[in-house]
Specification:
The protein has a single domain, classed as Glutaredoxin (3-Layer(aba) Sandwich). The strands form two sheets. It has a four-stranded mixed β-sheet with strand order 2-1-3-4, with helices on both faces. The chain has a two-stranded antiparallel sheet with strand order 5-6. By secondary structure, it is of the alpha+beta class. Strand 5 and strand 6 form a beta hairpin.
């Protein structure tokens, strides 16, 4: 299965998502979006395909979101996309694209909705939260 993750290796949620993809037996295409951000068309498509608004796809924490005045509700989607493209740290992460769909994997286990049921056993997130049992089945 062809899987792409827009990844930030410094983000725990992104690392957990990548590890869950690998736990399913898939080695994804990894794009460090801070170094190689998507173009405007690709970013807008990822956001739409994930069922999000542009505002929902902006990362606030640890970014210049407030300093840039992006909390202004009068800003248009085009203005928000411009800011995200200018400063990719504003793109929330990780976005994952598979033939089964596109997700902003926050929380990281949201990626399970768009992966095949081929997990190789248990999965525990970095913080100790159990996500998959020994048979690779989701813990609810």
């Amino acid at each position: 299965m062809d899987v792409t993750i827009y990844h930030n290796p410094d983000c725990g949620t992104s690392r957990n998502t990548l590890a869950m993809i690998r736990n399913s037996g898939i080695e994804p295409t990894i794009i460090d979006y801070l170094q190689d951000p998507p173009d405007r068309e690709k970013l807008a498509k990822m956001i739409a395909d994930a069922g999000l608004t542009v505002r929902q796809a902006i990362r606030e924490k640890g970014t210049p979101y407030v300093d840039l005045g992006l909390d202004n509700p009068a800003l248009t989607d085009d203005q928000l996309l411009d800011a995200m493209l200018k400063d990719p740290i504003l793109i929330n992460r990780p976005f994952v694209i598979t033939p089964l769909g596109t997700r902003l994997s926050r929380p990281s286990e949201a990626v399970l909705d768009i992966l095949p049921d081929t997990h190789k056993g248990a999965f525990i997130k970095e913080d100790g939260e159990k996500v998959l049992d020994a048979e690779g089945k989701r813990i609810v």
